[in-house]
Each structure stands twice: as structure tokens, then as C-alpha cells.
Specification:
mainly beta; Jelly Rolls; 4 domains
């Protein structure tokens, strides 16, 4: 994906009534926009990550200023009680005698419910009337099944979904004197309270209390108190997620905000007001021509451009929103726009993609891959049952479950030079792995395969540490075919090799992964010829020109390609 980053590139947009994040200065607005981009799955550069680390480092005077975030793709935002416009901490006490205690979860990995909310609670566009509570610090608005103890990043398609996570961790309510109860406060809001809960494994006696308040307008208040000084707060998830696990607002995951939460903290989760209209023109950055059929997304809203490149949205949230544009033949575009009430104009110039350095649709085994272990090329007869495109895929055991104790590194049998700062690998995958234990990842080598390092796709992996490897990877269920973008621009001017690494433990095997429709952009294989075909008289590019390559002294055609709409070709 084209990474148009705040720190490295000033966005070339024609903007009316819209605030766009600038490059150089590092202020509160910049940090908030970085948080918003990270919230929406964008891969931040090393420099941008340093900005966030400095902002949240111990002793930083600006820490409280930055403790707000979002929006997620639906539009949810969060802010805490240290913000000037944040919520006030006001713990609701159980002094009425009308509250209901949930003793059924006073054990390990237990759920209970459903319990009535008392009103229609709007959550990600759906009204819910009941909820379930889990001993592991999360609440679900649908029947959750297993009381999942291993906290995930948000969003994740792995269950549980339709969740509110005040403090999702491996808690143990079978020790000490915990209490969990629910009821309505004086304003008829639903209040769910966990008192003096401990973590499985300790420290012994270390406790935490937290509270969730649901308001009829859909706002959510989280409150934290009575946290022991030695309580481990850096292994939890705080946030919300929709019913499909495809949208979510992550406030905290495994300590990515230091020493958070803390006593007397309140966090407000809310939707901003609507009233912003957005429109603009999408054009080709090289020739200025309109791009028809481009998909434009703001938050969860999607539209496409017409023949003139025009797009529009009405009644959008008045907030900083993530804007993305996708069009065939162009780098993906992403930025954060500060939408104001009334009309907002955002014109976007898309950069054309270069010809791919490598493609594979896996319709046949072309000898491009060094197949080892479970890896195969062919038609899947299990798992998804069909390829993403055509009939063939690359996968682990196409007709059955993967093997036990697998440690299979599948290498692409060629090296590539990265020649573009926005180089990336794109493909589609479908996977079903034993969650957390088994999975796969993408590796890069810069020393011809002597050593390998994990490379992170846009949006990250579904697990930060697979048990079978101790390294990040995709695990659990993909929930269907998904596009994967792996940024490679950090290897500019270096020669790299690529591999997929599949791993499993000794028991409980699932189907595994299948991969299809792959392309490598912004790179160049050894011996590649790149060029452009133009009209000698006008200089205009020629589309679909045939380019043939012969060996010197041999008239037989070795290969033939055609130029694209910009006259470009590559051999």
C-alpha cells in the first residue's frame, strides 16, 4: 500500500475547509492523527513510532494531552478524564440494595447471562437489549460461547465479538473477595461493576476494580479505581468491537500506553455529531485525468467516483476521520481529514502503480517457490473450497489439516531489488489455525537467506506471539478471503528474499492457510527490462503494444509482453 506518512511526505491535496496533518511539527494534533491512523490499521514509520513513544514516555508533560484516540472505521472516539473536555471520574456505588450480583462467574473462565440492559442500546449500528458478562473482564452483547481468557488486539474476527472490554485479561474470580454486579443508576443508565478482581498467576492479593456505564444514547463510560501498586496492567485489552470483529476501537493492548489504566481514571467512548458533507475529485497524479470507479472510504462509509472522478458523502461525523481511496492500477491512498460542519472539499491525486516485478496466480506450479513441508500448489478441496481467483492456490495441505510440529519456511526462489520507497507485496489469504498456538508469518532476508526477520503487514498480525514460534503471525480464523498488504519500502536500495513461515504445535491441527493472486510492486528482479512505448510523432503513450525479446543470434521469441495504458512495459 502507498504509505503517505505524516512525517515523511506533505500531502498534495487541494483542500477547502479541511485540516490536513502537516509534516515537520510534532504537536498534539499530529500525535492524535498518528493515533487515529494507527487505530485504523495503518503501518507507521519508525520516525512516527518514535513520536508516539516520546509522547507516552514516563515524565512527558504532554502525556495527558494525548490520551484520546480514534476514530475507528465506524466513527467511535475515546478520551479520558485527564483531557480538558474529558469525562469526570464519578464512581457509582452499590448503596441502593437493588443491584444484582453475578456470582456465577466467581471462578476461572466463566460467562453468565443474558441480562437485560433496560433500554435499546445502540452499538455499531445495532440496537441491543441484553448483555453477557465474563470473568475475564469483557462484556458481550451476543451469546459469547467460550469465556476467552487470551486477550486479542481490537478488532479481531476471532471470538468473542460484539464486545466491550473494560479490562480483558486472564482474570481469576475464584480467589480473594471479588464482586461483580449490575443495575441502574439514578439516571437509568446500566452500570456493570467488577470489584477487587485478581489476575490468574498473581501477584497474590493484587486487585483491580473497574466499572462500565451504558447510556441510552450509545455513549460508554469506563472507570477504574482501587488498583494495587503491584497489579500488572500491561497485559490487557481495553476497547470495543462490532459483531463481525471487523471494526473496533482499541484504547489499550498489552501495555502500549504505559502505566494505564490508573486509579480514578474515567474513559468516555462516544460518537461525534454529524453534519459534515464531503466531496472532491480523484485524478491521476501524472496526467491529471479523472479516475473513474475509484473506491473512496471515509470511516465505514463507501462510495465510488463517476466518469469525472467526482465523489461525495453527506451527513458525516464532524471529527478527524480516516479517508482511504482504492483504484485498480494505483497505489492505495490513506490520510486523516479533519471534517468541519458544512461542506468539505478534498481532491485527491493517485500515484499510478509501476508494473509488478513478480506475479503469481498459482494456476500452475511455475517453479517459483521452493516447496517444503506442508506447502503445496493446486486446487483447494477443503478450507475455502475454492481459490480467490481461478482454480489454483498456494497453501498448507490443500485437502486436509496441516501436520503437527510444523516449522516450514517457504521461500520465493528469486531475489528482488527494492527500487521504490512505497514498495509492497500484495496477496489474498484465507486461514483457519488453532488460535494463538499455530499460524504463519512473512519474513524478509537481506543476506540471501542466511538470516530472516519478520516483516509486518498493514494492520498487523492477529497475534503478537504465536506459541509455536514465539513470534508474531496470523492465527485463528480469517472469516473469509482477505487482502494483505506488506510494506517493503524500508528495504529501499536493498536486495531481498521473501518467505512464508508456517508453524504448528504437536496437537490440535486445523486446515491452515491458502494464498492467491500475488503481486510484488516497487521492486525489480535481476535482469529486468523496464521501458515505455510512445508515438514518435506525438509522444503519447501506446497501449497494448507488443514487445518481444529474442536471444542474440536467435530469431525465436523468448518472451512477449504488452504495454499498459501508460505505455509502460516490463520484461
Amino acid at each position: 500500500m502507498k504509505n503517505l506518512t505524516i512525517a515523511l511526505l506533505i500531502l498534495l491535496l487541494v483542500v477547502g475547509g479541511v485540516g490536513i496533518v502537516s509534516a515537520s511539527t510534532v504537536d498534539a494534533a499530529t500525535v492524535r492523527d498518528l493515533l487515529a491512523r494507527q487505530q485504523n490499521g495503518a503501518a507507521l514509520t519508525f520516525e512516527e513510532k518514535q513520536v508516539l513513544e516520546r509522547a507516552f514516555s514516563p515524565g512527558s508533560e504532554e502525556v495527558s494531552t494525548y490520551l484520546r484516540g480514534g476514530p475507528d472505521t465506524f466513527g467511535y472516539l475515546w478520551r479520558d478524564s485527564d483531557e480538558a473536555d474529558g469525562p469526570a471520574f464519578d464512581w457509582v456505588t452499590d448503596d441502593s440494595g437493588t443491584w444484582t450480583e453475578v456470582t456465577a462467574i466467581y471462578s476461572d473462565d466463566a460467562t453468565a447471562g443474558p441480562f437485560p440492559i433496560g433500554f435499546d442500546f445502540p452499538f455499531y449500528g445495532t440496537d441491543y437489549t441484553q448483555f453477557w458478562v465474563c470473568s475475564n473482564g469483557w462484556i458481550s452483547f451476543v451469546s459469547p460461547g467460550f469465556a476467552e481468557y487470551s486477550n486479542d488486539p481490537i478488532p479481531s474476527t476471532d471470538t468473542p465479538n460484539a464486545i466491550l472490554c473494560p479490562f480483558w485479561d486472564d482474570l481469576y474470580l475464584g480467589t480473594g473477595a471479588p464482586h461483580v454486579y449490575y443495575g441502574t443508576d439514578a439516571d437509568s443508565n446500566m452500570v456493570i461493576t467488577y470489584i477487587d478482581v485478581q489476575r490468574l498467576g498473581g501477584p497474590t492479593g493484587a486487585v483491580l476494580s473497574f466499572q462500565v456505564i451504558l447510556h441510552p444514547d450509545g455513549t460508554i463510560l469506563l472507570q477504574y479505581d482501587n488498583i494495587s501498586a503491584n497489579y500488572i496492567v500491561n497485559q490487557a485489552t481495553i476497547g470495543i468491537e462490532n459483531a463481525s470483529g471487523t471494526e473496533g476501537l482499541q484504547i489499550l493492548y498489552n501495555g502500549d500506553v504505559l502505566n494505564y489504566p490508573y486509579d480514578s481514571l474515567a474513559i468516555d467512548i462516544y460518537l461525534p455529531p454529524v453534519g459534515a458533507d464531503v466531496s472532491g475529485i480523484v485524478t491521476d497524479s501524472e496526467n491529471g485525468l479523472p479516475v473513474e470507479g475509484a473506491e473512496v472510504r471515509i470511516g465505514s462509509e463507501i462510495t465510488t467516483t463517476d466518469a469525472s472522478g467526482f465523489y461525495s458523502f453527506t451527513d458525516m461525523f464532524i471529527a478527524s476521520m480516516n479517508l482511504q481511496v482504492f483504484a485498480t492500477g494505483y497505489f492505495d491512498f490513506q490520510t486523516v481529514v479533519d471534517l468541519q460542519e458544512g461542506q468539505n472539499t478534498v481532491d485527491i491525486a493517485l500515484e499510478p502503480l509501476p508494473l509488478p516485478a513478480f506475479t503469481d496466480d498459482f494456476e500452475e506450479d511455475r517453479g517459483s517457490w521452493i516447496l517444503v513441508g506442508d506447502w503445496q500448489i493446486g486446487a483447494p478441496t477443503a478450507g475455502p473450497g475454492a481459490a480467490h481467483g481461478g482454480t489454483g492456490v498456494l497453501g498448507t495441505q490443500l485437502g486436509t489439516d496441516y501436520s503437527s510440529s510444523a516449522q516450514d519456511g517457504l521461500e520465493l526462489d528469486s531475489s528482488f531489488s527494492i527500487i521504490h520507497e512505497s514498495a509492497f507485496l500484495q496477496y489474498y489469504h484465507w486461514f483457519d489455525y488453532e488460535n494463538v498456538w499455530d499460524g504463519y508469518r512473512i519474513d524478509v532476508s537481506t543476506d540471501d537467506g542466511a538470516t530472516w526477520q519478520v516483516v509486518t503487514p498493514e494492520g498487523g498480525y492477529t497475534s503478537g506471539s504465536l506459541i509455536s514460534t514465539g513470534l508474531p503471525g496470523f492465527t485463528g480464523l480469517s472469516g473469509g478471503w482477505q487482502r494483505v498488504i506488506v510494506p517493503l519500502g524500508m528495504y529501499l536500495d536493498q536486495e531481498i528474499r521473501l518467505r512464508f513461515y508456517h508453524s504448528s504445535d504437536s496437537i490440535i491441527n486445523h486446515f491452515g492457510v491458502v494464498i492467491d493472486d500475488m503481486g510484488l510492486y516497487g521492486a525489480q528482479p535481476p535482469g529486468q527490462i523496464l521501458g515505455m512505448v510512445t508515438d514518435v510523432g506525438t509522444g503519447d503513450p501506446i497501449d497494448n503494444a507488443r514487445i518481444q525479446v529474442f536471444l542474440h543470434g536467435d530469431q525465436s521469441v523468448q518472451t512477449e509482453v504488452q504495454s499498459n495504458g501508460l505505455g509502460e512495459y516490463g520484461v
